[in-house]
Write a structure and sequence with these properties.
heterodimer; A: mainly alpha; two-stranded antiparallel ribbon; 12 helices; 4% strand; B: alpha/beta; Rossmann fold; 6-stranded mixed β-sheet; 4-stranded antiparallel β-sheet; 9 helices; 36% helix; globular; amino-acid transport (chain A)
């Protein structure tokens, strides 16, 4: 039982990170029909900012907002430079563009920083652990769970009560009519990217806190997982992205913890098998998007 | 007096198909003007071209003395021109009040926004009762009222109404036409596209009859009622 609860805390921490990443993908997808595979490179950028801050002995409490800000700015720049010119292109055009952006950034990281994994200095506190209800939980895990909750509450408030957030939901449902109301397409799309950058930045801090290193390809795996989570939850649905992220986190952690040792090498295929099973039962995902039209402007 | 809106040689193409073949018309301040014609005559295409939802192939549209040909839709609501689109297209996953709030998106003056709320809730008390409900759960008639209310939230000087009574029960339909008359009394100029010709001719001042993307007749509604091209337009006699 104790092991189970322990692993549940781990699953919440990992699932929360996946949820934040999947949300970032979903926010952009719901508005412009683009799966941004360069989302992971936003994480990498935030990771490198943490690394350089560590080298320059910038305190962690300052390094974190700096890293997140870098990710937001990079996301907005990405939209302005790479995606705005192909906005009226097909979904495939935008998808290929996102792969191109991802690869260009990876090559830049490799050549300008280092092709090898770089250590990131983290405060010692993060690798401590504390006793909560008789369980020993890492501070970094607790921080991940807490940050996820804060971000989800913030995002919910923003999308429900802020004029820009409501406009983003309106645009996700019917972009043409939203524009008729005077909602500017550029503002909504740039806003969606900024939000996705914020989520990627927070996810990057959580991700790097677990592994204390950053490398040029760091963003690829988590974003692939987030993509799976977004589909599992229902592509384009924000609540679905959160549900999918947590479910994927739970599947991965429980399989790693409870699968017999001789089966461990089949962990990933079994995990993805479960995902396929869920999709067989709910082809549109756990919480499908009510109006998946993703019109282009 | 210069017309509030005028179109000169407006042309709309969808690929090789010419949906609107160079039409010219104008709307004076305070008028209710109807665009009449059978399905596919190009009525909705004209409205969508005016607000920039479909590209204009050629021609010119002037609103309030400014050339708005090919302008982006988001700039028009703040300048006093808006469209209540065909099929209502309310934001179903947003609450009624959020739909209305989006209608006033372009307004910045607090008093003006407060007045807009008051006017819309005054015209449609049902929307106030249902303000926290998701728009998707409203009945068809209520959704139509919400669509018109949402358009009115931007305090338009010219409101384009695309098929406001389509798919509504007769009783609700009557309410929509009463509303059109009421709006005119409030100083809103209207361009109406409607399939209910008889009722539209009762409330409109002037009308244009469209056949296959061209205006075949224009005039006061009293004259149009007796016109033979009216029947031709719907029965396809040419």
């Amino acid at each position: 039982m104790e092991l189970f609860l322990q692993q549940t805390a781990n699953a919440l921490a990992l699932g929360g990170t996946y949820a934040l990443l999947a949300l970032g993908l979903a926010v952009v997808f719901s508005i412009m029909g683009l799966i941004n595979f360069a989302h992971g490179e936003l994480m990498t950028i935030a990771g490198y900012v943490l690394m350089y801050c560590g080298i320059a002995s910038v305190p962690f409490v300052i390094a974190v907002p700096l890293a997140i800000t870098a990710s937001v700015l990079a996301a907005v720049a990405m939209e302005r430079i790479a995606f705005r010119p192909v906005r009226n292109g097909s979904g495939a055009t935008m998808l290929v563009t996102s792969f191109a952006v991802a690869m260009i950034l990876q090559v830049l990281f490799q050549n300008l920083i280092s092709a090898r994994s770089q250590p990131v200095l983290l405060p010692a506190l993060l690798s401590d652990s504390v006793r909560v209800f008789g369980l020993v939980i890492g501070v970094n895990k607790l921080a991940a769970i807490a940050s996820t909750i804060v971000m989800l509450v913030f995002l919910d408030w923003f999308m429900k009560h802020q004029k820009t957030g409501v406009a983003m939901r309106a645009a996700a449902e019917d972009f043409a009519v939203a524009r008729l109301m005077g909602i500017r397409a550029n503002t909504v799309i740039a806003g969606a990217f900024a939000l996705s950058g914020l989520l990627a930045g927070v996810a990057a801090v959580l991700w790097v806190s677990q592994r204390a290193s950053v490398d040029p390809l760091m963003g690829f795996m988590p974003v692939l997982k987030a993509f799976i989570a977004a589909i599992l939850g229902g592509l384009g649905s924000l609540r679905g992205a959160v549900a999918g992220g947590f479910l994927l986190g739970f599947i991965e952690i429980y399989l790693a913890a409870f699968l017999p040792p001789e089966m461990q090498e089949f962990r990933d295929p079994i995990g993805l098998g479960i995902v396929v099973l869920v999709l067989l039962i709910r082809p549109n995902g756990l919480i499908p998007s009510a109006t998946l039209k993703a019109e282009k402007v | 007096m210069a017309p509030l809106l005028s179109a000169q040689g407006l042309q709309v193409r969808y690929g090789a198909v010419e949906a609107v073949r160079g039409v010219s018309f104008e709307i004076q301040q305070g008028e209710i003007v109807a665009l009449l014609g059978a399905n596919g005559a190009g009525k909705s295409s004209i409205l969508n071209a005016i607000v920039g939802l479909v590209p204009t192939a050629s021609g010119q549209v002037m609103f309030d003395g400014k050339d708005i040909t090919g302008a982006a839709p988001e700039g028009l609501a703040p300048s006093g021109l808006t469209l209540s689109p065909e099929g209502r297209r309310v934001f179903g996953t947003l609450s009624v009040s959020d739909n209305l709030r989006m209608g006033a998106f372009g307004l910045t003056d607090k008093d003006e926004i407060a007045e807009a709320w008051e006017r819309v809730y005054d015209l449609f008390p049902i929307l106030k009762e249902r303000k926290d409900q998701y728009a998707g759960t409203l009945s068809g008639g209520q959704q139509q009222m919400l669509a018109v209310g949402r358009a009115l939230m931007s305090n338009p000087r010219l409101l384009l109404l695309d098929e406001p009574s389509l798919g509504l029960a007769p009783l609700i339909m009557d309410q929509i036409f009463e509303l059109i008359a009421k709006l005119r009394d409030q100083g809103v100029t209207l361009l109406v596209v409607e399939q209910n010709v008889a009722k539209t001719l009762q409330v409109a001042d002037r009308g244009y009859i469209l056949v296959s993307g061209e205006i075949v007749e224009a005039g006061k509604t009293s004259e149009l009622t007796q016109s033979s091209s009216m029947q031709d337009a719907y029965l396809g006699a040419n």
